[in-house]
Amino acid sequence: MTTLPDGHYIDDAPYDPDENLSALDRKDMDAPAWLLVWRRFRRHKLGLIAGLFLLLSYLLLPVAGFIAPYTPNERSAEYLYHPPQGIHLFHDGSLIGPFVYPTTGQADLSNFRWQYETDTTRPMRLQMFCEGGDYRLLGFIPSDTHLFCAPQGATVFLFGSDRLGRDVFSRILYGAQLSLTVGLIGITVSFVLGIFFGSIAGYFGGKTDWIINRAIEILRSLPELPLWLALSAAVPSNWGPVAVFFIISIILGILDWPGLARAVRSKFLSLREEEYVRAAEMMGARPGRVIRRHLLPNFMSHLIASATLSIPAMILGETALSFLGLGLRAPAVSWGVMLNDAQNLASIEIYPWTAIPMLPIIVVVLAFNFLGDGLRDSLDPYKS
C-alpha cells in the first residue's frame, strides 16, 4: 500500500481479473448463522454451564456400570440403611491415598433403627480398576471391571444404602440411563406427531384445521395425571422392564404433542402467506416440499428451544408414574423407582439419605430449563 502526496492510498498489488470485488474485506463480518448463535449462546453463562453439564451426563450414561462400585441390585444384608461414607486421603497426618474406615452395624431394638460404628483406627485403601459385579459396557460389551471397589471387609456407600442394603450412589448412576433416556424417546414421539398434525392444520386450513383443532382441545381438556394413570395401568403387568420403558416413553410423547402442534399451526398460518411460499407454490412445489424446505426451517429455532424445555416434563412424568408404582417397576432402576422405595416418611425421617434420588432430578430439570432459556435467546441472532 502506497500513500500519495494528496493523502490517498494506492494498492501496489497487481490487478487480478478473477478477484471477487463483491467479497467483504473482513470475512469475519460474514459469519455463518451457527457461529452467530454460538457467540450469543456463550454469553449466556447459566445456559452454557447447563449445556456442558448435560453433555457430560449423557456421555457418562454408557459407562455408568464402570463408574459405579456396585451393580444396581447387589445387596449387602449386613449393611441395611448404612449412612453415607466419606473417602479420605490422610490418616494421622500421613497421605495414604483414597481409603475408607470399616464399619460395623447392629439393630437398635429400643429405637427400632440401625446403628453403625466406625473404626477410625484401621484405614482400608480402595481397590482401583478392580473386578466386581457383571454389567454391560456401552450397553452390549460384557464386563466386570469397575473404577473403584470397596476393600475386603469394608464398604463404600458414598450416598448410603437403602432398606435392602443396595448402594444408592450406584443405583442413581444406573437409574440415569433410564430416566434421562425416557425424555429423548418421548420428545421424539411428541415432535413427530406435533409437527405432522400442526403443519397440516396450519398449511391446509379449512376442515382439516377444524378437525385437528377439535382433537387437540379434547386431549388438552383431559386431566393429565388421571389419564397417565389410566394408560399406565393398562400396560400388562407381565411385560418386561424394557417393554414397559418404551411404552411409558411413547405414552408421555403421545400426551405431549398437542401443545407443540398448536404452536406449529399458529406459526404456519402466518408463514404460508409469505411471498417466498407463494412463489414456491406457483413454481409447482408440492405441499410436502413447501412445508419441509421452506416453512419448517424458519421455525427450527423455536422447535429446538421447545425440545429442551419439554424433556424435563418427560423426566418428571416418568418419575411421577414410577413413584406411584404405575411406571417402571423393579428390577428396572430409575430415579422414580428409587423414590418409590422411599415413600415411607418415617424411614426418610430416620434415614434421610434415602431421599437423595430427588437431587439429580432437581439438578437435571433445572439444567434443561437453563439450557432452554439460553437457546431460546440465542437461536435468533438477528432479533437485536
Brief write-up:
The protein is α+β, with helices and mostly antiparallel strands and 384 residues long.
Description:
This protein has a three-stranded antiparallel beta sheet with strand order 3-4-7, with no helix packed on it. Strands 1-2 form a two-stranded antiparallel ribbon. The protein has a two-stranded antiparallel ribbon with strand order 5-6. The model has no long low-confidence stretch (mean pLDDT 80). The protein is built from 13 helices and nine strands. Helix 4 runs parallel beside helix 7 (241-271) and helix 7 runs antiparallel to helix 10 (300-323). It has 384 residues and is α+β, with helices and mostly antiparallel strands.
Helices and strands, with pairings:
Layout: E1 2-3, E2 9-10, H1 33-41, H2 45-60, H3 64-67, E3 88-91, E4 94-100, E5 103-108, E6 113-118, E7 124-125, E8 127-137, E9 141-149, H4 168-204, H5 206-221, H6 224-233, H7 241-271, H8 275-282, H9 287-295, H10 300-323, H11 335-341, H12 345-350, H13 358-378
Antiparallel strand pairs: 1-2, 3-4, 4-7, 5-6, 8-9
Could you tell me the radius of gyration in angstroms? 29 Å
* Gross geometry: flat
* Main β-sheet, spatial strand arrangement: 3-4-7
- Please, how many helices? 13
Average pLDDT value?
80
The first-to-last residue Cα distance is 37 Å
The total of beta strands comes to 9
DSSP helix fraction: 40-55%
Low-pLDDT segments = none
* Structural class designation: alpha+beta
Strand content: 5-15%
* H/E element order: EEHHHEEEEEEEHHHHHHHHHH
* Main sheet overview: 3 strands, antiparallel
